[in-house]
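Pasting as-is:
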Amino acid sequence: MLLKLENLHVKYGNVEALHGISLGVGEGEIVTILGANGAGKSTTLMAISGLVKVSEGSILSRNAPLHTLKAHEVVRHGIAQSPEGRRVFGTLTVNENLTLGAFTATDTGRIQKTLAWIYTLFPRLQERCEQMAGTLSGGEQQMLAIGRALMAAPRILLLDEPSLGLAPILVKTIFETIREINRAGVTVVLVEQNARAALKLAHRGYVMEVGRIVLEDTAEALLSNPEVRNAYLGGQAA
């Protein structure tokens, strides 16, 4: 497994948010984590990124422990996150935001090559490269947040709610681009409230409830699972 979480516990003060979750992500996969608000999905991604402290258990990438590392060290291990709510630097240009994403990189030739690839993925960003990020639309800011994460040239891209607040046509565009990123060799871990879109994109999925994983299967099997349909797909077949 490229990424492995084993018996992972995370606490916020005295409140335990993750109660011993275990999951794996294989190289080249898109794995989605589904669940209601408060299930622990974002906490899981933040634990992988080193943004929240692990109280028990382990996070391994190719058997190298990540749970003892600081966030910037996790990036150096080839893991980058596009956070929920986008969080772009509004007073910086698109190009400056993207450049910040490459803060761990030292090879300028590779940085330029990655930047060119991101502008191919998101032509709208290239058109607005000198525009202040705060003046972009929600969809453009989401593209920028994903692009900024990709500037670190990660092996694993963590995406937290990429479709949140976007119009359906933009959601389709973002998800098509995620598939393209995956085809280019980047493994993707996707947290997403739009369960139908996520499962149609992913290879496998996990369902979380109140800090625990309650279901794990192929995306196809989860799409046709009556419990998943009733809880997350409005009771309808996908």
